[in-house]
Write a structure and sequence with these properties.
The protein is mainly alpha-helical. The protein has helices at about 10-30, 50-65, 65-75, 80-105, 115-125, 135-160, 165-195, 195-210, 220-230, 235-250, 255-260. The protein has a single domain, classed as Ribonucleotide Reductase, subunit A (Orthogonal Bundle). Helix 1 packs antiparallel against helix 7 and helix 6 packs across helix 8 (about 195-210).
Length: about 280
C-alpha cells in the first residue's frame, strides 16, 4: 500500500520551485542540444566492438521505460510544482537520450529497423513499477541513479575513445545532462535534509540498502548485459561505492556513521545495480 503523501510547507515548496527555475534557466541558456545538428552522424563506426553496441542497446532499453517513469512519478508530486515541472523537463531530456542511442544503433549498422522494433516491443510488453512508494524515497533513489548513470556514460565514452566520434559525442552530451540531473536532485535532497533530517536519513538508509539501477532486471538477458557492464568496468560494486555512494554522502554532508541505524552497528549495504551486496 502506498504511503500517504508527504506534507510540505509553503516555504519548502517555494524553495523547490526556485531550484527548478534556476535549473531550467541554466539549461535553456547553456545546455540545450540538437539531436539532428550536434552529433556527427556521418562518423558512426560499423566496426566498433559488438559489446559496446550491446551496452548502448541496454541503455536505450532503460530509457524506453520513460512513459512508466513519468506516469508513476508525477502523481506522487502533482501538488509540488517544482518537482512535477522538473519531471516534465527531465522527461524531455531523457527522451532525447533514448532517441540518440537508438539513432546511433541504426546509423552505425549495429541494429536494423526490425531489431529496434523488436527491442521496443519487448520493452513495452513489461511495465516498470516504482521501487519505493513515497516521493521522498524516490527523489533519494533518483539522486543515486542519476550519478550512477552519469558515471556509466563517462566510462563508456572513455572506452569508445576516438574509435567512433558520433557515439563519443552522444555520450558526452548525455553525460552533461545526467550531471545536471544529479546536481538538481542532490540539491533537492539537501532541502529535505534541512527540513526534516531524521525522516530523510531514514529514507536514505532504505535506498542505500536496496538500490538497483532501473529496469535492468526486466530484460530477458539481464544477467548477460550486467556481466558486460561489469567486465568492461563501466560500473561494478567498487566503482559504485567509490564513485557514486561515497561522493554523494560527501556532497550532501552525510557521514556513513550517521546513516547507520541507531539500534544496530551494521554497515549500510549497497545492492548496486544487482551486482551483489558489497559492504560499505
Amino acid at each position: 500500500m502506498a504511503s500517504a503523501p508527504r506534507q510540505e510547507s509553503p516555504e519548502v515548496l517555494a524553495r523547490i520551485y526556485r531550484l527548478f527555475r534556476d535549473y531550467f534557466d541554466k539549461a535553456e541558456k547553456k545546455r540545450r542540444w540538437s539531436l539532428k545538428e550536434d552529433v556527427p552522424w556521418n562518423a558512426c563506426n560499423p566496426n566498433l566492438d559488438r559489446r559496446i553496441a550491446d551496452v548502448v542497446e541496454t541503455f536505450c532499453v532503460v530509457e524506453l521505460y520513460l512513459p512508466d517513469y513519468l506516469s508513476k512519478l508525477i502523481p506522487q508530486v502533482r501538488t509540488n510544482r517544482g518537482r512535477a515541472w522538473m519531471l516534465a523537463n527531465w522527461g524531455y531530456e531523457e527522451c532525447k537520450h533514448s532517441m540518440a542511442f537508438g539513432d546511433w544503433l541504426e546509423r552505425s549498422g549495429h541494429r536494423s529497423d526490425e531489431q529496434l522494433a523488436d527491442m521496443e516491443a519487448m520493452t513495452f510488453s513489461h511495465e516498470w513499477q516504482l521501487p519505493y512508494d513515497n516521493a521522498l524515497g524516490m527523489v533519494i533513489y533518483t539522486m543515486f541513479q542519476e550519478r550512477a548513470t552519469w558515471l556509466t556514460y563517462q566510462n563508456l565514452r572513455a572506452i569508445v575513445g576516438n574509435d567512433d566520434p558520433a557515439l563519443s559525442r552522444v555520450l558526452q552530451l548525455i553525460s552533461i545532462d545526467e550531471c545536471a540531473h544529479y546536481d538538481f536532485f542532490k540539491r533537492l535532497v539537501q532541502i529535505y535534509l534541512e527540513d526534516d533530517r531524521d525522516a530523510t536519513l531514514e529514507q536514505m538508509r532504505v535506498v542505500a540498502n536496496t538500490f538497483k539501477m532501473p529496469a535492468l532486471h526486466m530484460l530477458a538477458d539481464s544477467a548477460l548485459r550486467m556481466n558486460e557492464i561489469k567486465t568492461m568496468r563501466i560500473l561494478d560494486e567498487d566503482l559504485f561505492i567509490s564513485k557514486v555512494y561515497e561522493p554523494i554522502l560527501a556532497d550532501i554532508d552525510v557521514s556513513k556513521k550517521e546513516l547507520r541505524r541507531r539500534q544496530s552497528s551494521r554497515e549500510i549495504v549497497v545492492a548496486a545495480c544487482e551486482l551483489g551486496q558489497p559492504k560499505i
